Amino acid sequence: MGIYIETDKCTGCKLCLRACPYGAIAVEEDKAHFTEDCTSCGACVSACPVGAIVMEVVRAAQVDTSQYRGIWVIAEVQDGHLAEVTLELLGKARELAEALQVPVSLVLPGDEVSGLAARAGQYGADEVYLVEHQNLAQYRTGPYTNVICGLINKHKPEIVLIGATLQGRDLASRIAARIGAGLTADCTGLEIDTEERLLRQTRPAFGGNIMATILCQQARPQMATVRPRVMKKLEPQDGQEPQIINVPVSLDAKSIATKIVEIIREEQQEVVNLQDADIIVSGGRGLKAPENFSVIRELAEAIGGAVGASRATVDAGWIPAYHQVGQTGKTVHPKLYIACGISGAVQHLAGMSTSDCIIAINTDPNAPIFDVAHYGVVGDLFEVVPALTDAFNKEFGQS
Ligand SMILES: Cc1cc2nc3c(=O)[nH]c(=O)nc-3n(C[C@H](O)[C@H](O)[C@H](O)COP(=O)(O)OP(=O)(O)OC[C@H]3O[C@@H](n4cnc5c(N)ncnc54)[C@H](O)[C@@H]3O)c2cc1C
């Protein structure tokens, strides 16, 4: 990665100074030049009105991979807390780091977020790059990309993991494009080849019909996004204080193209927090009609579970999309998952097959859902599910 200024084009307008998060540009005699603090983050390139700043992205084949060491997780902060997916990624990063004998670092951008660093330590971070600035208080693509690209260029991690959330998907693709790295999105498995130091990134491909394992042999860092609830977070370890590395940045609000005016949260008619539910009862096309979801709801209510659904039922308009489990829905990891009238297409399995206990109810004994089920009932859901609901209601004294 190289960045330079074509001085014959530079007019000394100083707009690049405002764009640089690391204060690493000086203007003398109407010509800009980089100081030794430049991280090659590239934030100044688009700020230059005359195209005098040029960024050269090193072609993958030319990258010296031996210069890159360490595993990074990019933190996401939600409502003042580290997002669950960040803690889950720290757990996976710890496992990979132990195999590679390198530290786990968390990059924590935000405003007044230093209090979250200790929690990152409990969940596996050895060190935290703390980047605090009022203009990082809420996620915005531009400043987050600039700041994180600068850190990556300077410290050269070999692996960068980001949550496949709305924010993470936006950020990861921007970073990967800026630094010329590859990116494997929505991984469901991450393993390490310790000899080659290659991250084996597994994800569904071709509409979920195969599981592809992707290697990034030449570019660095190796970047992957992982959806919430795919990886398991570690049990928190008290007394694991991470090393804090304060990263000073200067972010001029005028150089940031976007401004958050108001955050409006979408109101759901019912609270469905599938990803945190310990019990999920899901319905599929075997329900035959939208009103029959009442059978699923009654069982879910009897056992304190949430209602999930296959995409076929969502696509048919039987139930809102936020109930959908699977590759294009939510990834869930409950203690108990009851699949009723769901065939078990690979795209559905991608979202629930790591559940601790799976019970499948289906009239077809050859339905693929039985391949992942711990307990299977071959039978008509309209008989089996109400019978279960009655039994639970009797057991828990609700009838
Ligand atoms: C790119 C892509 C992404 C996708 N993402 C997702 C996703 O995120 N989630 C998802 O779920 N799907 C997803 N799909 C769709 C997926 O391929 C399947 O089409 C879908 O999961 C099927 O839903 P289903 O099991 O409800 O329906 P079906 O496959 O039609 O299965 C219905 C089942 O009900 C059983 N049945 C019928 N009557 C009864 C009864 N009375 N009692 C008990 N059992 C009965 C049948 O034997 C059958 O097994 C995706 C597809 C693609 C191409």
Task: Give short descriptive properties of this protein.
alpha/beta; Rossmann fold; 3 domains; 5-stranded parallel sheet; 10 helices; 25% helix; 25% strand
Characterization of the model:
With 399 residues, this protein is α/β, with parallel strands linked by helices. It has 3 domains: 2-56, Alpha-Beta Plaits (2-Layer Sandwich), CATH 3.30.70.20; 62-251, 3-Layer(aba) Sandwich (Rossmann fold); 274-395, TPP-binding domain (Rossmann fold, 3-Layer(aba) Sandwich), CATH 3.40.50. 25% of the residues lie in helices and 25% in strands. It contains 10 helices and 21 strands. It has helices at 15-19, 84-100, 117-122, 141-155, 166-179, 293-302, 311-315, 346-352, 369-372, 381-395; strands at 2-5, 25-28, 31-34, 53-56, 71-74, 77-78, 81-82, 104-110, 127-132, 159-163, 183-187, 189-193, 198-205, 210-214, 222-226, 243-246, 279-283, 306-309, 336-340, 357-362, 375-378. The strands form 6 sheets. It has a 7-stranded parallel β-sheet, with helices on both faces. β19, α8 and β20 form a beta-alpha-beta unit. α4 (141-155) packs across α5. The longest helix has 17 residues, at 84-100. It starts with a strand and ends with a helix. The model has no long low-confidence stretch (mean pLDDT 93). The chain binds flavin-adenine dinucleotide. Flavin-adenine dinucleotide is lined by residues 207-208, 284-286, 310-313, 324, 326-329, 341-343, 345, 347-348, 351, 361-364, 367, 380-382.
How do you describe this structure in short?
The protein is α/β, with parallel strands linked by helices.
Set down the secondary structure blueprint:
Elements: E1 2-5, H1 15-19, E2 25-28, E3 31-34, E4 53-56, E5 71-74, E6 77-78, E7 81-82, H2 84-100, E8 104-110, H3 117-122, E9 127-132, H4 141-155, E10 159-163, H5 166-179, E11 183-187, E12 189-193, E13 198-205, E14 210-214, E15 222-226, E16 243-246, E17 279-283, H6 293-302, E18 306-309, H7 311-315, E19 336-340, H8 346-352, E20 357-362, H9 369-372, E21 375-378, H10 381-395
Helix pairs in contact: 4-5, 6-10
The protein binds flavin-adenine dinucleotide.
Residues 207-208, 284-286, 310-313, 324, 326-329, 341-343, 345, 347-348, 351, 361-364, 367, 380-382 line the site of flavin-adenine dinucleotide.
